Amino acid sequence: MNGGEIGASASPDSSVRSEPETSEEADTSNLISAGHESFDLIFMMLLGIRTAISKFANEPQRELAPNEFDDKWDGDFLANGSADTPAHTQQDFRFRDFSPLVFRQIREHFGVTNEEYLLSLTSEYVLVEMFTNSKSGSFFYYSTDYRFILKTCTKNEAAFLIKALPRYHGHLMAHRYTLLCRFFGLHCVHLPTTLGNEVYVLVMGNVLPIDKPIHERYDLKGSTRGRITSEAERQDPNVVLKDLDWIRAGRKLHLGPDKKRVEQQERDQTGGVVPVLDSAEICPGAMSFVQQLCKRMAVTRGAALMIDYGTDETPKDSLRGILRHAPVHPLHQPGLVDLSVDVDFGTLRQVARETAGSSLRCPPLSTQRDFLAAMGLEARINALLKGMDDREARKELVRSAGRLVASPGMGTAYKVFAITHASVGSDGVAGFPDAPLLDGGGR
User: Fold this and answer.
1) What's this model's pTM, rounded to 2 decimal places?
2) CA distance 207 to 227
3) Where are its TM segments located (predicted)?
């Protein structure tokens, strides 16, 4: 998950600024205050943050229990107030604070106290809107002192962060000067029906000084596919440039003689107590693909079948190379070796549930071996053998079928994942013992 296109990463010799910086040159022309179309949402979000942070402020410091990574606090913010929430002038709304003690520990680890956090975000209940050309559709906001960035995210992105939170938290605790984006809070506002549905917001540290001009901004993802800005976009002085813009401009990162940055990058990527970038493998493209597929399927019906290496959990260190049906080192004979990583089918199922769950069915994940057996592989092979006279051809057919169902081997390494429209699977889905409806809720 990207922490955000602008100013959301840290450097090894500076944490989030310990003192809020202000500047007469800071752009306040996009201030979201009373009368702005986004003011109601921002007010609800900031009031919820202030209430939630204050509620857990006096909890004693201690080692976190595993269940606290999944904890959340829900508050019903009634206009007239309640025992847990203050009165306010907006419509009634519900606020959810995810993993409050975990994020508090992360904030304090990087020198951000509860008082500083609330002062930056909620002293005036206003934010500064940041305009970007983000294709994700996310909105970005600064706190008024520019110390923090708030980014809207999808429900799927929020769910993934919570899933990866134990590893992420462990890495940050072990590496104070990590270059990873520092997330300081994850929140959700369930809006009144007149304003929409629900909005998820990530709060992260901003390490870029606001009193210095920024001539170019880049969002680098390590990909070149579609990663370029148009001529029209480049006319905007605040445009966020991309990977191909960086390459064509001949830009390079100059790290200087101090090797701390390089060493920390290596720790973030492959070393340390919890090598978080090695242990959490995700594919945002797969999530987007399944989301679009489910939206189409909910309208046009049909079914989808996916077969690949994978599990129901987030994969770890699964990069592999295959050459002539045998495992080899991924860098062996580049260009000839097939490279693959495991698919996180559990996350894809959750994407389907949240996209169109009530109109879809999703059978439990099956091995290729069990799926082919249920589809009658043995009977089909026997039928083919009866029509074959060539002895060697018969042996090759049996060998090929054996490879497909071998355990250990392709039969258990490959998994079969299916999604169907509710009407298609009402009498069962071929190859699976059952196909329950997705309920459309839960994380």
Assistant:
1) 0.64
2) 25
3) none
Question: Within the chain, what is the greatest distance between any pair of CA atoms?
Answer: 88
- For 116-139, write each residue's pLDDT tens digit: 999 999 887 778 877 554 555 678
How many other CB atoms sit within 10 Å of the CB of residue 414? 19
Structure tokens at 350: 């959750």
Q: Which of 70-79, 93-102, 190-199, 399-408 has the lowest mean pLDDT?
A: 190-199
Confidence (pLDDT) at 3? 39
Rounded to an integer, what distance in angstroms lies between the CA atom of residue 171 and that of residue 279? 11
Alpha carbon distance 109, 95 (integer Å): 25
- Residues 8, 99: Cα–Cα separation, whole Å: 21
- What is the C-alpha separation between 146 and 205, in angstroms, rounded? 9
Cβ–Cβ contacts within 10 Å for residue 274, how many?
18
- Token pair 């699977």 in the structure block, residue: 425
Q: Are 405 and 368 in contact (CB under 8 A)?
A: yes
**H or E segment at 54?**
helix 39-55
Mean pLDDT of all residues in 361-375: 91
CB 127 within 8 A of CB 150: yes
CA nearest neighbour of 1 among 173, 154, 226: 154
Q: How far apart are CA 416 and CA 442, in angstroms?
A: 23
What domains does the chain contain, in order, with CATH numbers?
31-214+250-269 (3.30.800.10), 284-421 (3.40.50.12710)
